[in-house]
Predict the 3D structure of the following.
Amino acid sequence: MTHSSTDPKTTSTTNSSIVFDHVTKLYPGQNAPALDSLDIEVKSGELVCLVGPSGGGKTTALQLVNRLVDLSSGDIRIGDRSIMDIPAIELRRTIGYAIQQSGLFPHYTVAENIAIVPNILKWDKSRTTRRTVELLELVGLTPVDSWLGRYPSQLSGGQQQRVGIARALAADPPVMLMDEPFGALDPITRMAVQDEFLEIHRAVGKTTLFVTHDIDEAIKMADRIAILKPGGKLAQYDTPAEVLTHPADEFVAEFLGAERGLKRLALTTVAEVLVAKAEPERPAESDLPKVEADVTLREALSVVSAAGAHGARVMERGSHLGDVTLHDLVDPPANAVDARNGEGVGL
Amino acid sequence: MSGIAPAGDPVIPDYGQASECVINNGPFCGDWFVDQWATVFWPPLVDHIYMVIIAVVIGFVIAFAAALIAYRKRWLAGPIGIVATFLYTLPPLALFQLLVPFTGLTLLTVEIALVCFTLVIIFQAVLAGLAAVPEDVKRSAIGMGLNQRQLMVKVELPLALPSIISGLRIATVLTVSVATIAAFVVDSGLGSPILKAVSSPFNTQFIGAGALAVLLAFVLDGLLVIVGRVLTPWMRARV
Amino acid sequence: MDESEGLMNEIFGAFPFIAANFGMLMEKTSEHMLISLVPLLAAIVIGVPIGIWLGHIHKGEFLAVSITNIGRALPSLALIAILIGFVGIGMLNAMIALFLLAFPPILSYAFQAVNSADRDLTRAAKGMGMTPLQVLNKVELPLGLPMIISGIRTAAVLTVSSATIATIAGSGGLGDVILNQVAYGIEGVLAGAVWVAILAILVDQVFALLLRVAAPTGVKQLRATTV
């Protein structure tokens, strides 16, 4: 994961922010709301994770946006338009939607699945075909020709999820809703698909609302995290680093778990520490374990600890960039952490 | 009783030279079967096929429509299901006879009764197929902006097809069997040569017509299997 | 006008007929039940254990499916007629025919009932140290019982229903009334048809009730299908 703060985040010029304005959802027959006066803004191009225990209303919040669930009170705006001003079906066609189990149509081939929304929008054939090929390349299902004609049953879970993402992106929606899209994958596939999705996200810059129950996934993926607690109340809405260093309350601290400190170290790479350190020492001694520049502090700490050393040599493509000390790893310079902590757009 | 049926005692049919097998009323006389194919077996077989196809097609249309309505308005599923099950439970012969005062000794009587027997099977199959469409597929379809009609035509019906086809198969096979009983009402179908041979009794005619009915059931069943395969290519796609 | 009046007379004539011939109908009913229930019982006694055993060892899927298909395709009329040639006229003929009709659904439902028991459950039961017999008694049978009864229900309706046709083999029963317009008139035919229809529905409902009782508490009621 190499994050650069200089990457332009938004490729589209139109405003595609998602604003939750005092959003409350009370399901009929229940006396407590599933979502209680939620107020958050997801900026254009931002990736926001909604996390929380089951019963926290995170899926409800997501489904309110594409009107699979109706608002009880409050308003949601995409760009400057209230979602209530747009007919539900029309609205949904402008929002990418990916869910757990992929939701692929089992009776459609990969190509047909991706073409669903373009077809209802009556795109011409050649445009749809071009888009399909482009998307399959984007999600790494190449050579494209060998994937187009397959049915979902012929794909692995990870491949299905990639097609699911491609399908959600098909009509180039400015906004993406993702409901635990990687929830059913095994840990290794999951990591791979997360990395790919981050790359795609960086490339296409869709405003993305991402529901997950996995806090590690949220820390890894999100520009900002919204933590919901039972009863659908917002506990905290901030950057991963801020959430980890300054949990808003007991609930958030407990939700983040005892390894909160270690999780925080996963936010920063050793390269960022080196940059932040004014004058990196370059001692000649070489008994320190080597780490690649793009590993996180957490991973580097693990390597150092395993070697019983007090620091590590940071390498990039075989050349020695400098050393980090055990102290650097455990208590990184503040500006290294801040590098990706500014305003939530600093991925 | 028509002239083609062997009648009276002894069992020898009164035409031409009878073979040893026919004289002794053996279990199945191939020569007689071949000789009489064009007069005794072929016409009832054709009638039988028509009878079954008409009944299954009409039954399918009614049951399919009823299932769609019951799927949309869940509270209707119970009452419709009870009526259909009630009709299914009636003994075929009793239903035929109960209809005779209204529609006479006609093919219409037969078709009404046969349709009644197909209803419950097809109704339940369509409903079960629709109910088994995976929730995540429906949710993502709606989430992508498919409207109700598109959801039904593009997602729910295709995915219910395997269940619908298997319902059609059962209904068809059963109708082939029940349609033999129509011979008590009209002189038509494969039950007809069977009933005509009862008084003799002449084995070749029983077994010939009975076997044709079983064979017809299997052929129609096989055809539906093929139709099902053609319509559901994704069911065969495996890694 | 006349025609519909005649129709009404015929239909309502069925009820006085039932009143006037109650004794005869009851006698035919007992014959009917005899030729239906004896083969049904025989099919249960033979079919259920075989089905359970095959299901328990998870073998014979093909056999069970084939028997069901053939059983469904076999026209009762043809079966009874063919048996006239081999067994002759009388009750035995009807009983053999009805046995052959009742056997397939009973066997295949019993097979499916046990065969389709959740493998995780049976594995867990084995893992707890249950013997195969205990797995059968404590897990597979209680869970499969509703389905076994469904099979018997299907077979029972089928035999009661097909027994009406057995009259062509001279085995008595309510078919004697339904198919003998010469002797009993149109009222008699209709009365017999109504009577046997009620009988079939009663039999069906008795098993529906049994099904409700048999489903183990905690197991979602198996929807009783007649198919």
